[in-house]
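User: Here's a structure from my thesis project, written as structure tokens. My advisor, Dr. K., wants to see whether a designed sequence matches the one we expressed. Can you design one independently, without my sequence as a hint?
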């Protein structure tokens, strides 16, 4: 049986990216990801993500859900219908499968995330 995984005890090389130009709304925020876990089927991912201020359009896949807990900063997710929710340090959000809208980083932020992408 596998052992539990402690993020603080792993040395993970970060992956850096920027929103695709066609999805940018404001700025060009640097996004840094430390993916600490991927399960053997490639359906579950968990780690730490940090981002500079800016915003871009997002679209979750039809079988992809994300839970995250904000550890620093503040963000707002606005659904294409106009409904918005804001989260700051100490708060959690779920982005459900099929969500379409805008992800806006209002203050430099960091979050712990878990993404489940069902392949079957």
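Assistant: Designed independently from the structure alone:
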């Amino acid at each position: 049986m596998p052992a539990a995984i402690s993020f603080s005890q792993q040395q993970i090389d970060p992956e850096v990216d920027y929103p695709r130009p066609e999805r940018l709304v404001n700025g060009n925020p640097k996004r840094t990801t430390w993916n600490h876990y991927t399960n053997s089927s490639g359906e579950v991912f968990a780690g730490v993500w940090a981002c500079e201020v800016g915003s871009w359009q997002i679209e979750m896949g039809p079988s992809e859900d994300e839970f995250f807990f904000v550890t620093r900063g503040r963000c707002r997710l606005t659904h294409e219908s106009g409904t918005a929710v804001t989260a700051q340090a100490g708060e959690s959000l779920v982005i459900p499968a099929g969500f379409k809208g805008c992800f806006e980083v209002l203050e430099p932020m960091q979050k712990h995330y878990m993404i489940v992408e069902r392949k079957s």
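When you compare it with your expressed construct, this may help: DSSP finds no helices and nine strands in the chain.
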